[in-house]
Amino acid sequence: MSGVIDRRAFVVRCTGVGAALVLGGCVAMVTYPVPMLQGRVRLSIADYPDLAAPNGAIKILPMQHDQPLYVLAQDGGEFVAVSPICTHRGCTVDVHGARLVCPCHGSTYSRTGEVLRGPAQRRLTSYRVSRQGDALIIDLTTARS
């Protein structure tokens, strides 16, 4: 009877697999702490290879800033920085390719932060991003809601 497991062992294994899948989804996007100087963050694109991928994205936490930001690669070599905090009820939105989706109530945003589907009524807060050679400069003094 090798290969046969009892009911309890089956439930324990299934629970372990389920927990691994759930926790794996929770840690999918690493948050990078980054320095901030005079309200600006400077990122070298070469240091974050995920930004070079199609629909590339990273999550950063600027020092002395209370909320993380998503830095999202756009078509044509442009970049956008948006708050991941849903404007409906304050849940953290997840990056799903070309969309940002709130897991709490289903609000969906474009990669520029515009509302595509409610219940959210306001866009995500975004910040001006400029490029200087291989570096992105994110100006946290220019929040746009």
Description:
By secondary structure, this protein is mainly β. It has 1 helix and 11 strands. Strands 1-3-4-5-10-11-2 form a 7-stranded mixed β-sheet, with no helix packed on it. The chain has a 4-stranded antiparallel β-sheet with strand order 6-7-8-9, with no helix packed on it. The longest helix has 20 residues. It is globular. The termini are far apart. About 8% of the residues have low confidence.
What would you say about this model in short?
The chain is mainly β and 145 residues long. The protein contains 1 helix and 11 strands.
Q: Rg from C-alpha positions? A: 19 Å
> Spatial order of the strands in the main sheet?
1-3-4-5-10-11-2
Order of helices and strands: HEEEEEEEEEEE
Task: Please give the share of residues in helix.
Answer: 10-25%
- Average of per-residue pLDDT values: 85
Q: Number of helical segments?
A: 1
Instruction: Assign the structural class, choosing from mainly alpha, mainly beta, alpha/beta, alpha+beta, or little secondary structure.
Output: mainly beta
Main beta-sheet strand count, sense and barrel state: 7 strands, mixed
Q: How much beta, percentage-wise? A: 35-45%
What gap, in angstroms, lies between the N and C termini? 64 Å
Number of strands: 11
Taken from the alpha-carbon principal axes, the silhouette is globular
Regions with little confidence, pLDDT below 50 for 5+ residues = 16-27
